[in-house]
Give the backbone structure.
Amino acid sequence: MKLLTVVIPAHNEALGIAHALEAISKTLNSCAENWEIVVVDDGSQDGTFNRLQKLAIKDSRIKGIRFSRNFGKEAALLAGLKAAKGDAVVTIDSDLQHPPRLIPEMIEAWKKGAKVVDGVKRSRPTDGALTKIRAKIFNKTLSILGGISLENSSDFKLLDRVVVNAITSELPERQRFYRGLSDWVGYQHARIYFDVEARAKGEGKWTLLGLVQLATIAIISFTSAPLRIVTGLGFATLIFGFFVAAETLIGWFQGRAVSGFATTIITILILGSFIMISLGIIGEYLANIYDEIKRRPAYLIENRLGFDEEKLS
């Protein structure tokens, strides 16, 4: 067995990080001779990294990276992939909603030739109705607009070293969406289905605003379709203008008094709405371009455990 790396992004997981590492280590001992775990502490404020330090002392195969502040899960996954040395890399959440017991199945699919093994959610019994609807809308929208299949997708994946190198070295963008990139690169895929389990400890960290921001980044990064919506709004306004003009002319020829106040107000409101929506869509793309051309690093590392002196960037 070649070296297997497991990358775990963690944010304020002090209550559950020890249990998660114990469960994942137990699984790895049963299916791989050579393995390492890279935990990326995404600027936690609850002592997650202190717990990690104690665990790393007991087992040198457990390594850690601590960000200088919270940069987000996408940055944590990127840092973990860059630090991973394995011939295959598994990314998994620290809350154990991604079942570690499926890692052996992923390894078997990898040995059979798959370069990317996707963990696909078969059911989400722990999610409420609103969460399920929100996730379905997001995945369906991105699949239609972006042309990538993300139905019931997750960050629970196994990547071959070729794919890891492509994502970390060949794709230079700062604003990233890991699920989309792992699908976009191509290569042979395999699927492993799982039921989302309840969190082992602690509470979920995602907020509605955070999910909206992630969805915005995902859509902007993978498709220009929203910009075409602006063109569509322009044509819709033009057609509406023709109808209003036609109605006004017909009324004038028939000798009817044309009441222009209501029509004017409605036209102004519709045009104003279309203009603001269009400016908002264009503004999101401009903001993304602005972030990219600044070329700031995706994250800054404050501390690390178990790594050599080479720079982790």
